[in-house]
Amino acid sequence: IEAVxxxxxxxxxxxxxxxxxxxxxxxxxxxxxxRDSGSxxxxxxxxxxxxxxxxxxxxxxxxxxxxxxxxxxxxxxxGYEAVxxxxxxxxxxxxxxxxxxxxxxxxxxxxxxxxxxxxxxxIVALVQLACGGLVQxxxxxxxxxAAARRAHHP
Length: 154
Description:
Elements: H1 2-14, H2 18-31, H3 37-53, H4 57-64, H5 74-90, H6 94-107, H7 114-131, H8 134-150
Helix pairs in contact: 1-2, 1-3, 2-3, 3-4, 3-5, 4-5, 5-6, 5-7, 6-7, 7-8
């Protein structure tokens, strides 16, 4: 049930139904046990992303600080760092944004990681663009596009 709730909340966020997404994610996190850390990380990342889209960057950073992604699957670590990067951008902390984006890209390696790699490279491009690194942003965007094609994403 948690997986369905998380997927629904992500869809609500993508559709701009942020209040509904936040309510659902807070309920999921309230019922997720500490031992089910995979669901907890996914829920925290989804809630932080939802808060980010509401412009609540400080709260989003606080939510992200509640989990540790050490030793997690590369896709989970990459998604966590990608959200952490955009939250840092929202807070105006370019150094943290660059570092998190690089960690997201580095974590998105290995077989079957093309979708995560595409997302991470997109975030790297966004962060580099915000920092004025146009050449780096262009290279990261090309990497994102190549990874998206390999993952068969539009």
